[in-house]
Amino acid sequence: MRNHQPPTQSDPDDAAIPHWYDADSDRLEVVEGDGATVYDADGTAYLDFQSQLYCCNAGHSNEAILDAMDEQARRIPYVSSAKHNDTRSKLATRLAEVAPGTLSDVYFAVSGSEANETAVAMARKVQDGHKVLTRWQSYHGGTYGAGSLTGDPSTRTSLEVHAATTGAGKFLPPLPECFGGAEGEELAKRAADHVEFVLRNEGANSVAAIVMEPVAGTSGAYTAPPGYFERLRAICDEYDVLLVADEVITGFGRCGEWFGIETEGVEPDVITFAKGVTSAYVPLAGVVVDEAIGAEIRGGSYDLGQTFAGHPVACAAGLAAIDEYADGLIEHGAAVGDYLEERLRNVAADHDAVAEVRGRGLLWSLVFADPETGEPFHHPWAPDEPAEREEDGPDSDDGDNPVAEFREAAQDRGVILGSGRPDVQAIVSPPLCVTEAEVDRAVDAIDEAIAAVFD
Question: 287 with 356, same domain?
């Protein structure tokens, strides 16, 4: 290993290298959980308003899911992904039942990144096109293929520092700042027309699919203006391009319906899922496609697969989780989501540093900006000074970021929040089982943390 330096560890007793590693940050040790609450090694309780990674939708102690996993593991813990298994087949059927529209055929994977890569591979196969279009300010995964789809420069720079993948193009997200401050119907028209412009200039015949999150996940929980997705669906139909909904975060009740795209009233050709399908109790992901795509894949050969895709224990967890969601958990989460929105907007009105509250269901972002300039206090993707850019590179995040300080202040007050991409915001996304009383406690702590850092 060239120029290898002696290893350093923030915890010399821990041999595990954490993901999204930052040598300068302290990591919270989580050892126990119950509902919307987790506990550290000292027994300190935290309201988990990040759902760990926007995935523990049913909370941390759902007995029905745990029992289903135990029963499957005792019957047969593993069956090759190339063979049939009754639990796997039952879950595929159940997913087809809850998926929107005519989506009917399921291909299992292990992670959201792999699900998105699989969706792209399938789209390229059936469409005979090699390009895929995604949004700037998006996140679709951290593997090479999924990273190329991702609009977040931090992820792409980390992956592409030594090698890059091809075949992914980008277009602007439907945000007012991207289209001269336009809002509502005007924003929807301009943003959709822009997608069509990019599609034409890439060569529509070379584009297999457009991949989008129905509601942005870690890229900021922003929603599309009314009419945008209807226009996007029409563009895809006109140019014979597949519309792929990345539901890795937005699926399984996170946005108030089974899938986030249902809140937009359009039907995609493909959805990808992960995270909430098992409430993250076991890794599981996959792709649901419409009957025509499924028939084309089944009609020939598809010589790709993964050892742990559709793991029987994970599929058992998925079946149990879907039953829990269907038994009122999604409706409960939607109702509490309305209350969370109201509380967050009231807090934002009391603090000038909160520039925007945006989201849907139980997926929200608090966006911070300097009230005097309207600009972020610190933007990790755009250093303030040219010298910083030259010295630290295009992905520098050097500099004090009060938004990170705010999240630390919230954690000190017993509430875990997520960081957004870019890190000018905090993501608020509790499990679906969260109560209004827990929302009150969390938002009160958020209110105090904002005041401590910004006021």
Answer: no
> What residue numbers bound the domain in which 55 lies?
30-61+328-454
> Could you report the per-residue pLDDT of 381-407, keeping only the tens digit for each?
876 554 444 444 434 445 589 999 999
CATH number for the domain spanning 391: value is 3.90.1150.10
Q: Dihedrals φ, ψ of 207, to 5°?
A: -95, 125
Helix (H, G, I), strand (E, B) or coil at 262: helix
Q: Give the closest residue to 211 by CA, choosing from 199, 221, 203.
A: 199
CB 85 within 8 A of CB 73: no
**Model's pTM, two decimal places?**
0.91
- Residues 281, 189 within the same domain: yes
Which residues, in sequence order, are bridge partners of residue 428? 364
Residues 317-327: pLDDT tens digits? 999 999 999 99
Which ranges of 137-269 does DSSP label H, i.e. alpha helix? 144-149, 153-160, 184-202, 228-239
Provide the terminal-to-terminal Cα distance of the chain, rounded to the nearest Å. 49
* Amino acid residing at 237: D
Average pLDDT over residues 287-313: 89
Report whether pLDDT(360) > 90: yes
Beta bridge partners, 210, equal 133, 243
C-alpha distances (whole Å) from 250 to each of 134, 183, 271, 427 are 17, 23, 11, 13
